Amino acid sequence: MAKGSLTRKALDSTLNQWPKLIRYCEHGDLNISNVLAENAIRPFVIGRKAWLFADTPAGAKASALYYTLIETAKANGLEPYAYLIYGLPTTRCLSLLAMILSALPKKSQRFISNAGR
Known about the structure:
The chain is an all-alpha fold and about 120 residues long. It has helices at about 5-15, 20-25, 35-45, 55-75, 80-85, 90-105, 105-115.
């Protein structure tokens, strides 16, 4: 096989990844692709410039909590809004949402409070 040929490059790549390939073959529950993880974070990568409310550490923390809850619901096949409202135990859900709301700037708090009316 000629050095530098596409076939040779493909085989070299396979051999370089051999330990990972063997691990995947030994454990059938492993996903060979990370496309699910990439698809889950894509909306955040695309929208990050639009998130001006996270201009403080507290706003960023609130965003991280909120996005974690939403992605956890999605990963478990749940509808995120229903998960936040009905799926979590009520007292913990309300205290968590209150913590997220309190971390947001006042302008965002007023917007969220008025959205329910």
